[in-house]
């Protein structure tokens, strides 16, 4: 069986970066991890309209994969279609924002989020409120780059470092969460530059999916 990680934007380079970040989780005896690009998605999930637009294509893709899957991961920090897919599927479904924030809460008292655009921040704040974690949020700050602009590694890493240091020094964050799946390749360097633990949310979600898949397998074996 396979954990399917679905990137709901249409940028294959983002999916490639996510796929590389999954390498540490590809271990013997565990489910396969396959990263997919939603061809019908926009080039970035950057507005509420984008979030709403991808829900139906995402549900169709997951339905096509249901019989091959052990779990689904929605690799977008807005968690588009998370609750709809949980209703549709009989399998565990994880959103990277939810998993990333919950992982951060186990690593520090106040988490800071590094977002892509300022327009993302209000959407994230609504979600954190619904999750009931707003009191643990230090701040959510944007680097001012779109998903497609993240391909400029030097510029992106410099902006992420600047914002990460501001979250630590000015807002008291003691753990950082990357607010976009397209940032995955910068985790280690960002942690070194900021001196804080950094949660890459797709890794957090896949870790949750692996745990659930292996628990289900062990329960089945011992029945």
The tally of structural domains comes to: 2
Task: Tell me what the CATH architecture of the largest domain is.
Answer: 3-Layer(aba) Sandwich
Gross morphology is globular
Say what the CATH topology of the largest domain is: Rossmann fold
Count of discrete alpha- or pi-helical segments spanning 4 or more residues: 9
Helix-strand sequence? EHEHHEHEHEHEHEHEH
Spatial sequence of strands, sheet with the most strands: 2-1-3-4
Q: What are the low-pLDDT stretches, counting only 5+ consecutive residues below 50?
A: 219-223
Number of strands: 8
Integer-rounded radius of gyration: 17 Å
> Strand share of the residues?
15-25%
Summarize the structure.
By secondary structure, the protein is an alpha/beta fold. The chain has helices at 12-21, 48-53, 55-65, 82-88, 96-105, 118-131, 153-169, 187-194, 201-221, and strands at residues 2-7, 32-37, 69-74, 93-95, 111-115, 137-142, 175-178, 198-199.
Describe this structure as you would to a colleague.
Residues 219-223 have low confidence and may be disordered. A four-stranded parallel sheet has the order 2-1-3-4, with helices on both faces. It folds into two domains: 2-95 and 203-221, Rossmann fold; 98-200, Rossmann fold (3-Layer(aba) Sandwich), CATH 3.40.50.12500. The chain has helices spanning 12-21, 48-53, 55-65, 82-88, 96-105, 118-131, 153-169, 187-194, 201-221; strands spanning 2-7, 32-37, 69-74, 93-95, 111-115, 137-142, 175-178, 198-199. The chain starts with a strand and ends with a helix. α7 (153-169) crosses α8 (187-194). It is 47% helix and 17% strand. β3, α4 (82-88) and β4 form a beta-alpha-beta unit. It is built from nine helices and eight strands. The chain has 223 residues and is an alpha/beta fold.
């Amino acid at each position: 069986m396979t954990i399917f990680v679905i990137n709901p934007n249409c940028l294959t380079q983002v999916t490639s970066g996510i796929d590389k970040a999954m390498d540490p989780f590809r271990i013997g005896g565990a489910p396969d991890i396959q990263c997919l690009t939603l061809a019908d998605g926009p080039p970035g999930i950057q507005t509420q309209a984008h979030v709403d637009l991808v829900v139906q294509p995402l549900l169709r893709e997951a339905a096509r994969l249901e019989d091959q899957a052990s779990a689904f991961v929605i690799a977008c920090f807005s968690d588009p279609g998370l609750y709809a897919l949980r209703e549709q599927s009989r399998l565990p479904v994880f959103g990277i924002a939810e998993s990333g924030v919950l992982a951060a809460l186990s690593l520090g008292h106040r988490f800071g989020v590094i977002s892509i655009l300022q327009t993302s921040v209000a959407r994230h704040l609504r979600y954190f409120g619904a999750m009931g974690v707003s009191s643990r949020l230090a701040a959510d700050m944007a680097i001012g780059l779109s998903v497609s602009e993240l391909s400029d590694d030097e510029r992106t890493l410099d902006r992420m470092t600047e914002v990460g240091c501001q979250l630590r020094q000015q807002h008291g964050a003691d753990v950082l969460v990357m607010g976009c799946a397209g940032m995955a390749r910068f985790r280690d360097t960002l942690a070194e530059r900021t001196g804080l633990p950094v949660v890459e949310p797709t890794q957090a979600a896949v870790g949750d999916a692996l745990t659930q898949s292996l628990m289900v397998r062990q329960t089945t074996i011992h029945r």
